[in-house]
Amino acid sequence: EPEVTQTPSHQVTQMGQEVILRCVPISNHLYFYWYRQILGQKVEFLVSFYNNEISEKSEIFDDQFSVERPDGSNFTLKIRSTKLEDSAMYFCASRGGLPGAPLHFGNGTRLTVT
Amino acid sequence: LAKTTQPISMDSYEGQEVNITCSHNNIATNDYITWYQQFPSQGPRFIIQGYKTKVTNEVASLFIPADRKSSTLSLPRVSLSDTAVYYCLVGSYNFNKFYFGSGTKLNVKP
Questions:
Q1: CA atoms of A74 and A24, how far apart (whole Å)
Q2: Tens digit of each residue's pLDDT (9 = 90 or more) over A4-20
Q3: Which domains, and CATH codes, for chain A?
Q4: Test the A interface: residue of B93, B102, B105 with most A CBs within 10 Å
Q5: Residue B14: what pLDDT?
Q6: Mutant choice from A49, A98, A103 vs B, greatest count of B C-beta within 10 A
Q7: Fewest CB atoms within 10 Å of the CB: B11, B35, B96, B97?
Q8: Residue B2 contacts by C-beta under 8 Å, 6 or more apart in sequence?
Q9: How many Å apart are CA B23 and CA A25, to the nearest integer?
Q10: CATH class held by domain B9-109
């Protein structure tokens, strides 16, 4: 069964550094998403992406965040200047184009900001 | 967006049927209802999705009443490996954003 893959599985960075989290969505999917989950809390929506542009974003997704689909397979989340409170699991998801197509999630990148 | 409400936690024993109900009073006409399972340090895993009435697959059933203001995930004969957090997600396909609720932590005991 096709799956969403994310790399790296764990990223440690120092406060103020830039990080790029990478995702390879399922190949024929058209819609892409980033979510985050702070330890012990619920899964929070960050941003959705379709047709090479952001569809929706939450209030969490401020100017320090950006997303990009640099080629036909990768989907990236960049955090420009990391803060301690950015430490969380970051999940990528994708879905197909049919109405009601469910989201499929990767297993996440654990980001630790020190 | 439709807000979802679920019980925070539930306990069950191996072999029992478990029903987890989710309330979504302001669900929109085009919204679908999807349930996910999440184990610690893993991404949410799709279980089942429906729009109305009943849907069944190899792992679960989903019951949706006619008014669609709630839904019930039914897990037959749970095992210890079903211990996880279960999320009900009401999808806004018109706006392409999907918010998770707080989820239900299911604890299956031997």
A1: 5
A2: 999 999 999 999 999 99
A3: 5-97+106-113 (2.60.40.10)
A4: B93
A5: 97
A6: A103
A7: B11
A8: B24, B25, B26, B27, B28, B31, B90, B92
A9: 31
A10: mainly beta
